[in-house]
Amino acid sequence: MKTGLAIMMVAGCTLWGGRACADVWTNVAGRTIEATLVGLEGNAVLLRMKDDSLMYLPLMSLAENERKRAQQAAGGQPEVPDALRVNFDQCRRTLERLQQLCHAGVLPSAEYAARRQVALNSFSAVCRREFIDSTDLVQKMNGAQP
Asked: Are residues 93 and 62 in the same domain?
């Protein structure tokens, strides 16, 4: 389980005083906080502050390299949030169908590329409306290429 992995990492980082060592986390505005990663829950990151309080932050609010660091520490592949599941599956099916048509010679490569980009742009727009970074999710479905 992803949260279990993150907790094990925190436990492995315990200092003499029994407190977990904190990392510096940077948001998209460049502001930093010191906190320890507890885990990811949906599209939020759960951090333990130096005063032992917990803070939920939208994953999208972290700088890109920090989002990747949090996702890797919590288990790698991004999960598709429930709010995007239908749109993600629909886009993935569209990309798979376009790929099949291209491989069958029914759809020219240029037409495939244009329609593929429209599908990905539509999915990215839905992600932005939900304040969710689409980068890793688009990479996850990027297997549908000729």
From this structure: no
Q: Are 35 and 55 in contact (CB under 8 A)?
A: yes
Binned at pLDDT 50, 70 and 90, residue 21 comes out as: low
For a pLDDT cut of 90, what percent of the chain falls above it? 19
Does 33 map to a domain? yes
CA pair distance 42, 37, nearest whole angstrom: 14
At how many degrees (to 10) do helices 2-11 and 64-73 cross? 90
Full domain range(s) for residue 23? 2-73
Whether the full predicted model's pTM is greater than 0.70, yes or no, is: no
Return the amino acid letter for 64: E
Claim to verify: residue 33 and residue 58 sit in the same structural domain: yes
Residues pairing with 27 in the sheet: 62
Specify if 13 maps to a domain. yes
Strand order in the sheet with 23-26: 23-26, 32-41, 44-49, 54-58
Average pLDDT, integer, range 108-127? 92
